[in-house]
Amino acid sequence: NNNVIVRLAHVGEDVIRLFKKSKDIGVQMHEELVKVTNELYTVMKTYHMYHTESLSAESKLKEAEKQEEKHIGKANDISSSLLRYGLDERPQRRSSVKKMEKMKEKRQAKYSENKLKCTKARNDYLLNLAATNALVVKYYIHDVSDMIDCCDLGYHASLARTLRTYLSAEYSLETSRHEGLDLLEGAVDAMDIRGDKLKFMDTHSQIFCPPACFDYQPHMGDEVCQVSAQQPVQTELLMRHHQLQSRLATLKIENEEVRKTLDATMQTLQDMLTVEDFDVSDAFQHSQSTESVKSASSDSYMSKANISKRRANQQETEGFYFTPDELLIHMFPVLCHKRYCANEVFQLIAICP
């Protein structure tokens, strides 16, 4: 858990640090893009200004050319009239033509100058326009993608390593859990009531081994150590033998009845204790909603009402079990004692004439 937490913390720190650096680079690139577009706007305005001046100079030049043509035509008409009357106006005409030519040359020079400036400004504008468009395309197609790559530099790899660490731990835990479950299932299958009881008694053999038999303790030098069946006690022993046989028959019948009751009660308890109520897979169906799972659990064999009822029945049956069991505990020593005494008396009577 700590390994995954530390890795996630490192991933978060790396993301924040790289984001800040990428953001600074992005701001610089954006400022550079704004600077280039502002320069493009300035160059465009310069081009528009020179183009306007070029158009104005061209218009003035054309106007001068028209005035020159008009002036030449008018001068030719006047010259023709004066020639008819024998007059000469050539000096005045030359002065006017020179003046018009000078104005035309001046406007021609101005137009050429403005046209050159306009051409240079247009070239500068077109070059800047192409460069700016290329820069904008580069920014949105390449630079933005590169900035995103800088932002998540190593993010996916680091996150994948972190999650794979978690998956490795979970898969290992699942494997270990399955191994533990297999061991537990093997232990459950290997449960042996009689074997466990024998192992328990063998382990504590000093407690459960039979003690030494009681030895006969004669009194004051009495050397007789056997039951005497001679007269006059033989008649009493014979009567006692008949009484023991009668008592044994009664005890056997009572013992059999109690044993039958005990066996039936034991079988009922076994049925209660070995009922197969351990399958709870229905409560983990992925297709069921939470409410349906709760409902299935409440209606199942392991609901609180059923558990309470089963516990009450079990305790009641245990009461029926231990009552005849107590009778057997009291009856069995008496039965054994009576049977042994009857056998001994019978053997003595058979031996004695």
From TrEMBL:
<protein>
    <recommendedName>
        <fullName>F-BAR domain-containing protein</fullName>
    </recommendedName>
</protein>
<feature type="domain" description="F-BAR">
    <location>
        <begin position="1"/>
        <end position="196"/>
    </location>
</feature>
<dbReference type="InterPro" id="IPR031160">
    <property type="entry name" value="F_BAR_dom"/>
</dbReference>
<dbReference type="InterPro" id="IPR051627">
    <property type="entry name" value="SLIT-ROBO_RhoGAP"/>
</dbReference>
<dbReference type="InterPro" id="IPR027267">
    <property type="entry name" value="AH/BAR_dom_sf"/>
</dbReference>
<keyword id="KW-0175">Coiled coil</keyword>
<feature type="coiled-coil region">
    <location>
        <begin position="241"/>
        <end position="268"/>
    </location>
</feature>
